[in-house]
Amino acid sequence: MTLVTRVSVAFLVALALALSGFSACLYVLAGLRLRLDLDQELEATLDRFPERRESASGRVAWAVYDDAGRRIEGSTGAGSQAVLDGRDLGPIAVDVAKTIADRDGLRWRVLARRIGGRGRHGPPPDDRGGPRRPPPPEKEARKGGGPGRDRPGQVLAAWASLEPVEAELRWLALALPLISIGLWGLTAAIGHHFGRRALAPLTLMAESARNMPFDDGRLPSPGTRDELDEFARSFNGLLDRLHVALERQRQFTGQASHQLRTPLAALVAAIDVARRRPRTAEEHERILDRLRDDAGRLWRVVEALLFLARADADAELPDAERLDLAAWAAGHLRLWSDHGRAADLHFEASGGARPWTRAHRPLLAQLLDNLLENACKYSPPGTPVVVRVAEEPGAASLAVEDRGSGIPAADLPRIFEPFHRAESARRQGPAGVGLGLAVARRIAEAHGGTIVAESEPGRGSRFVVRLPLVKADTREVVREPGLTRSPDGAGPHGG
């Protein structure tokens, strides 16, 4: 089922319910109004009696009855059927309109009122319009009524047939469904037409997405300046980000394959050379040392790739703990005492700062080792490499500064991308993989922090790691880091 059909069906069901409810309410209200009009006409007939004995519409009849239900006098002509003759008028003589049925099954609306004596309006008028005199007692006796026939207990009643009202309601009950069905059908046709036109841009975008090439493409903008236009812009923005990520993944895969093949090829070549002829124990030791170096390089590349490939959820730090960043960094530098550049390494705490942060000690040690190894690799021996700790608003900063060749401004935006190396570093610098800074950035982000690079060619570089600042804990004791190796082999780090 298409979206247009689903939207149309939902709308038409709602419209059908609305029309049904409206028709039912209109039918009920019309019936109440017609009966109310009839009741008001009955009451008006009684109120005008005896001055005016006929109703304005001619559909109301009236009569005066005694308690036994015998008619004393009444209207003549159409609608004057004696529907109350012989009835017990006690239950209906209460000034409330009631519906009754006659012997033929016809339904009537009746309103009765006790008038007592000659009624509150006096005796009924004669044919000349004047007051009609009561008949003499002897005439009453001859009729069998006897004296007191029009004494208290007389009832004035007015009635009208419900057939016209019920006929109008039957016509309304037939007309309302037909009108509702006609409106529903017309709305269905118009709604389906405009629904298809309104969703035509979405259909076009879906067709474009279906025929879009995997590695490139954009959805056409509908130009409607509404939610569909915003959807197209948002989706195209997502496609742009996916294309960038896909391109980076391709580069990453190609570079990773190259970096993995190089040490593997060296290992295979060294093994083949070693097997060509018998060798002395010293030669085998040299070959094994070379194989160990190549295997270590391969291991560092694999570890770095695995760390970079971890999902964000896997990069959480369950063993993170609060630590004094200055005390920890100073203690960690002591592990570099046997490094060839140990004399060039210096530690400074700006203003005696003792910022505290929450970190995973092995990963933080790996980050610092990567930055130190990078600084030692791209700065000449004898120049200082400074590890500086400072406290900034809301952050604890750890910076590594060198006086090396620096990084060209064009390469700074990509310096933390995997396998990226500046052109000058590839030409002049020592061999490297290009994963150390990428791993450092991932570790900083896993700690909820950031890392930035500042550099000026010919004057050196400065890498600054900013971690969230936490409240100091005087009970915390900084443990001496143990002597281990970082996963990418950048140098010793604390555990």
TrEMBL record:
Database matches in SUPFAM superfamilies: ATPase domain of HSP90 chaperone/DNA topoisomerase II/histidine kinase, Homodimeric domain of signal transducing histidine kinase
Presence of the UniProt keyword Iron in the record: no
CDD domains: HATPase (cd00075), HisKA (cd00082)
Cellular localisation: Membrane
Database matches in InterPro entries: HAMP_dom, HATPase_C_sf, HATPase_dom, His_kinase_dom, HisK_dim/P_dom, HisK_dim/P_sf, Sig_transdc_His_kin-like_C, TCS_sensor_his_kinase
Domain Histidine kinase: 255-471
SMART domains, per database record: HATPase_c (SM00387), HisKA (SM00388)
Keywords: Kinase, Membrane, Phosphoprotein, Transferase, Transmembrane, Transmembrane helix, Two-component regulatory system
First-tier enzyme category under EC: transferase
GO annotation, cellular component aspect: plasma membrane
Region feature Disordered, mapped onto this chain: 116-152
Entry superkingdom: Bacteria
EC number: 2.7.13.3
Reaction(s) catalysed by this chain's protein: ATP + protein L-histidine = ADP + protein N-phospho-L-histidine
Primary localisation category: membrane
Domain HAMP: 196-247
GO terms assigned for molecular function: phosphorelay sensor kinase activity
Pfam families with a match to the protein in the record: HATPase_c, HisKA
Basic and acidic residues: compositionally biased ranges: 123-152
Protein name (record): histidine kinase
Annotated source species: Aquisphaera giovannonii
Gene: cusS_3
